[in-house]
């Protein structure tokens, strides 16, 4: 089929390249002419594993091209996807102006029977509203509107698309339903569950899924804090509850609070829809508050470990999660400014997100590797779970630092391994760190030094 993708961001580029992989001819259109010029030079504006290779493959196969001018491609397209941003508005509700602009400017260009597919995350009722706008702009009702929310995660976007848990195809008429079926035929043949439903359900499914996943994270974060206070180990607790198939182990990893371009924005939108329809989503409202409080509480905790102005802290990881250069709503964007404001000297490192972080946070120094960031640091804080940090040489890290505190917000290490280097390990709900003296005693043969003795010692 001939497809046009409006918006060449994370979702548009990935979806465009993957639809080309499924055999369709795709033109990705963006109104950012600079972005399109870069894409035409094979410069991929985002870091997403495998995306650059997939794009090159299909530019060469002739099935993928880029344009900043939708007219020609849209006039031939069977399906026009809208994958533009839907940022948060002031009351948490989403800003639909990009979706509306894209739809109305395209409307007169479409051939009869074309289907506009909304890929952006939008609130219930948006597809119906877009249908009215498109028909008004054309002066006739010979094109159709569908809702096909996207569930990919940054960092594993291509696999999430091509090996999706399910495809949600929202259509209110036979033509839109048929075009969606044809677009996804290769994935349906592979046995990927295909949920054919109406547009309102499709829109609701997307928000309910994100709200539920965010709730799992918010829940385990609080369980982790309780474990820390009660002397439990959240990793064991998450394994123990996650093996219950009704619960599942995924998304039970505690951290510095969820971030990214989706969970914070989508939970706010979900809560806003609840208020708008007179059905407040109290659980999600609380989750949003707790997640924000978590990030600033973490900054306070870092400052208390740091113990005074002018002391040095290394921040390892500023992306909202590993394998992306995206820093939207990342914990680092809340925590770094608070540390700098309190007079700390901050040196940061991230394998991919330095450039993006520098657009939002000024005043920090940057290092080329984690050990350089840790040089002379009083406290090292891990905020992103990059493999590079999980694989760090702890002896080298300990030698680089002048202080002794490692605050690991992603639980990358076994507490004992860090403590054995004479470091105080502050994790998120793992076993309490052994005090430096006790570890030293163990190394020098004083005391029994067994694990239960170390674990039982006060942090
Ligand atoms: N990022 C994700 O992981 C993810 C996953 C699933 C769903 N979503 C949803 O998908 C949507 C897009 O998210 P994103 O992260 O790809 O956004 P993005 O900001 O990375 O990309 C949006 C692109 O649309 C372009 N654009 C805006 N208006 C346009 C127009 N009228 N014509 C042409 N181009 C236009 C912008 O220049 C930009 O390049 C959002 O609704 C988001 O909530 C995102
Ligand atoms: O056990 C976990 C899992 C995630 N996170 C954090 O939660 C945030 C979001 O992570 P993730 O869901 O992996 O990334 P996204 O790329 O934002 O993907 C989410 O948001 C997308 C946009 O809607 C959806 O398409 C995806 O299905 C949904 O997982 C990040 O800050 C993670 O560090 C945790 O703290 N613990």
From TrEMBL:
<comment type="pathway">
    <text>Nucleotide-sugar biosynthesis; UDP-alpha-D-glucuronate biosynthesis; UDP-alpha-D-glucuronate from UDP-alpha-D-glucose: step 1/1.</text>
</comment>
<dbReference type="InterPro" id="IPR014027">
    <property type="entry name" value="UDP-Glc/GDP-Man_DH_C"/>
</dbReference>
<dbReference type="Pfam" id="PF00984">
    <property type="entry name" value="UDPG_MGDP_dh"/>
</dbReference>
<dbReference type="Pfam" id="PF03721">
    <property type="entry name" value="UDPG_MGDP_dh_N"/>
</dbReference>
<dbReference type="InterPro" id="IPR036291">
    <property type="entry name" value="NAD(P)-bd_dom_sf"/>
</dbReference>
<dbReference type="InterPro" id="IPR036220">
    <property type="entry name" value="UDP-Glc/GDP-Man_DH_C_sf"/>
</dbReference>
<dbReference type="InterPro" id="IPR017476">
    <property type="entry name" value="UDP-Glc/GDP-Man"/>
</dbReference>
<keyword id="KW-0560">Oxidoreductase</keyword>
<dbReference type="InterPro" id="IPR001732">
    <property type="entry name" value="UDP-Glc/GDP-Man_DH_N"/>
</dbReference>
<dbReference type="Pfam" id="PF03720">
    <property type="entry name" value="UDPG_MGDP_dh_C"/>
</dbReference>
<dbReference type="InterPro" id="IPR014026">
    <property type="entry name" value="UDP-Glc/GDP-Man_DH_dimer"/>
</dbReference>
<dbReference type="GO" id="GO:0003979">
    <property type="term" value="F:UDP-glucose 6-dehydrogenase activity"/>
</dbReference>
<feature type="domain" description="UDP-glucose/GDP-mannose dehydrogenase C-terminal">
    <location>
        <begin position="314"/>
        <end position="415"/>
    </location>
</feature>
<comment type="similarity">
    <text>Belongs to the UDP-glucose/GDP-mannose dehydrogenase family.</text>
</comment>
<dbReference type="InterPro" id="IPR008927">
    <property type="entry name" value="6-PGluconate_DH-like_C_sf"/>
</dbReference>
<protein>
    <recommendedName>
        <fullName>UDP-glucose 6-dehydrogenase</fullName>
        <ecNumber>1.1.1.22</ecNumber>
    </recommendedName>
</protein>
<dbReference type="InterPro" id="IPR028357">
    <property type="entry name" value="UDPglc_DH_bac"/>
</dbReference>
<keyword id="KW-0520">NAD</keyword>
